[in-house]
Design goal:
Elements (H helix, E strand, L loop, with lengths): L6 H8 L3 H19 L8 E5 L2 E5 L9 E4 L6 E5 L5 H8 L5 E3 L3 E4 L7 H12 L4
Antiparallel strand pairs: 1-2, 2-3, 3-4, 4-6, 5-6
Helix pairs in contact: 2-4, 3-4
Length: 131
């Protein structure tokens, strides 16, 4: 797993409830895995947006920002910009398989709810959104 170098990002992850932190770290790792396998994406910038760990294709500008958060309802979520079709395309591709929040997020109550092969498709779509 890639180490977190920004103390503010580390603090955000440390503030997650334990179960949500496990899920969040799985999502984080998947984001870096997918980015590494798409040369056009280039390096990712890991920062905070709205107090949440966020992942940007700052150098290549190939994608839209992904965020990871701990919703008030519990669990963990991966967020994409609501003006994109990233979440809706994912929901249409895998109807009824995940808890979708409109056009902005996919929620996971537990880490075992994350199906890597499915979520990698969402991540790939987000990281290549502008290509």
């Amino acid at each position: 797993m890639k180490p977190i170098t920004d103390p503010k990002v580390q603090a955000a992850y440390d503030a997650f409830p334990t179960d949500a932190r496990t899920s969040a770290m799985i999502l984080r790792d998947l984001i870096f895995q997918v980015a590494k396998n798409i040369p056009k994406v280039g390096g990712l910038t890991e920062t905070l947006k709205w107090g949440q760990p966020s992942y940007l294709t700052a150098t290549s500008k190939s994608g839209t920002t992904l965020r990871i958060g701990a919703p008030k309802t519990g669990g963990c979520a991966i967020y994409a910009h609501c003006a994109t079709n990233v979440i809706s395309t994912y929901a249409d591709t895998f109807p009824g398989l995940d808890q979708i929040e409109g056009t902005r997020a996919v929620h996971f109550k537990h880490s075992q709810d994350i199906v890597p092969d499915r979520i990698k498709l969402l991540i790939r779509h987000a990281l290549t959104y502008h290509l």
